[in-house]
Amino acid sequence: MSYLTLVVLTLAIGCIVSWNVNHQLKTYSRVPISSGMTGAQAANTMLYHYGIYNVSVRMGAEGQDFFDPRNNTITLSPSAYNGRSITATATACHEAGHACQYAENYLPMKVRGNLVPVANLASNVWVFLLIAGILLHLSDLTMAAIILYACVVLFELVTLPVEFDASNRAKKYMKLAGYQGVDISGSSAVLRSCAMTYVAAALASILQLLWLVGSNRE
User: Fold this and answer.
1) What's the rounded Cα separation, in Å, for the pair 4 and 69?
2) What is the set of active-site residues?
3) Which of 141, 183, 187, 203 could form a disulfide with 90 if both were Cys (CB 3.0 to 4.6 A apart)?
4) Beta bridge partners of 57
5) Per residue in 150-185, is it b (16+ CB within 10 Å) or e — as a string?
């Protein structure tokens, strides 16, 4: 596979996945959730259901939806924090799912957390080592770059079960809480499309790694 083919393929996958997630998020942001709760209320209700009372839910900037285990907080974008839509509830419950993982010492999350420093370093350094190795014709530098990039790929692979499990926890809770019909189907569509962004990123990284390994052998 040529590098141009790789770039075109990964761009095509990225565009398709990005279109789908934006479509699902916008579609279900217009559909009210039957409970009438805001995303913040839904997240807190889910946390309390599982006996978790030490996690604070706060509002961040638009596009910021995440759980931070360092200070045990859930940050939701304004549309998710204040929204009373299916998208807002699904997003909030997904992040509450991450908080549940942390409270239960969910193994993949612990592994992912331990890989964060390595992945951050590797993602910032590998390309410079690769360029230096190519320009200076130093195979050791090139191999070091590939190894570092492999660490990035490993991090993305470990992220997959963490994200899928958080979505599964969100859907399981919503069913237990009495949500039905479009609440469940819409939330599933939103969470599934968001999960596919991680799958697409991992797939693109794997293809890139395979290309690097193949090129290094030539």
Assistant:
1) 39
2) 95
3) 187
4) 74
5) bbbbbbbebbbbbbbbbbebbbebbeebebeeebee
Specify burial of residue 194 (Cβ count, 10 A radius: 0-12, 13-18, 19+).
Answer: buried
pLDDT digits (tens, 9 = 90+) for 61-88: 999 999 999 999 999 999 999 999 999 9
57 in helix, strand or coil? Answer: strand
Question: Rounded to 5, what percent of the chain is helix, strand, coil?
Answer: 75, 5, 20
Question: What are 205's two structure tokens?
Answer: 């990284």
| Alpha-carbon Rg for the chain in angstroms | 20
CA distance 6 to 33: 41
Distance of CA 180 to the CA centre of its chain: 25
CA-CA-CA-CA torsion for 198, 203, 208, 214, nearest 10 degrees?
150
Torsion of CA 79, 83, 86, 89, to 10 degrees: 90
CA atoms of 30 and 14, how far apart (whole Å): 25
Strands of the sheet with 66-68, listed across from one edge: 56-59, 73-76, 66-68
Rounded to whole angstroms, the Cα distance separating 138 from 129 reads 10
Q: 66-68 and 56-59 as β-strands: parallel, antiparallel, unpaired?
A: unpaired
Reported as half-sphere exposure (CB side, CA atoms, 13 A), residue 161 has a value of 12
If you ran DSSP here, which 8-state letter would residue 37 be given? -
Q: Where are the alpha helices (DSSP H) in 30-138?
A: 39-49, 78-82, 86-103, 107-136
Q: How many CA atoms lie within 13 A of 188 on its CB side?
A: 10
Phi, psi of 71 (to 5 degrees): -125, 10
pLDDT tens for 177-211 read 999 999 999 999 999 999 999 999 999 999 999 99
